[in-house]
């Protein structure tokens, strides 16, 4: 399947979370004007853990815009349950340990750590700022899972499964921030 673009239909698939198995994506998006699929690496990755933290903190803002959120990770359900046992996560984390969803959605890994690392000065500073915030919050690296060079992606689909936004990152920091995603949702709601 080619990479998703605006106007495409999200392929049908089922997924497992840390707490449920065999959930149908089209059953999950029905009745929700917009759904975000935020594709990351794994919960032990400090930058991914930080992203989950930020999205949890901002989740009500997404809900006020009529959106729900799923975070896709390569993590085992047990690892997610253990790592997030003290965190109130208001959305499901899809546990794609076999990386079938990454393959289906064509979310590729970088060929090397060097290729995954940003070189653009603006992105280098964005990553440095993110690392400062991670350190302030005290997040430490956890269990390594999946493909370490996995790149992130973000998809926004409507309740019929039509892709309204698709972004495939070219490096580890090339992703919309929560603020940018909220602005995107506001614009999509006006269309």
Description:
By secondary structure, the protein is of the alpha/beta class. The protein contains seven helices and seven strands; from the N terminus they run ββαβαβαβαααββα. It has helices at residues 25-29, 46-64, 77-83, 100-104, 113-116, 121-137, 178-190, and strands spanning 14-15, 23-24, 34-39, 67-73, 92-95, 153-158, 163-168. A five-stranded mixed beta sheet has the order 5-4-3-6-7, with helices on one face. Strands 1-2 form a two-stranded antiparallel sheet.
β-strand percent reads 15-25%
- Helix tally equals 7
Mean pLDDT: 96
Low-confidence stretches: none
Ends apart, CA distance between termini = 28 Å
Helix content: 25-40%
Spatial ordering of strands, largest sheet: 5-4-3-6-7
Envelope shape: globular
The total strand number stands at: 7
In N-to-C order, the SSE pattern is: EEHEHEHEHHHEEH
Rg over alpha carbons: 16 Å
Largest sheet: 5 strands, mixed
What keyword list fits this structure?
7 strands, two-stranded antiparallel sheet, 5-stranded mixed beta sheet, 191 residues
List the topology elements.
Blueprint: E1 14-15, E2 23-24, H1 25-29, E3 34-39, H2 46-64, E4 67-73, H3 77-83, E5 92-95, H4 100-104, H5 113-116, H6 121-137, E6 153-158, E7 163-168, H7 178-190
Parallel strand pairs: 3-4, 4-5
Antiparallel strand pairs: 1-2, 3-6, 6-7
Q: How would you summarize what this structure contains?
A:
The protein has helices at 25-29, 46-64, 77-83, 100-104, 113-116, 121-137, 178-190, and strands at residues 14-15, 23-24, 34-39, 67-73, 92-95, 153-158, 163-168. With 191 residues, the chain is an alpha/beta fold.
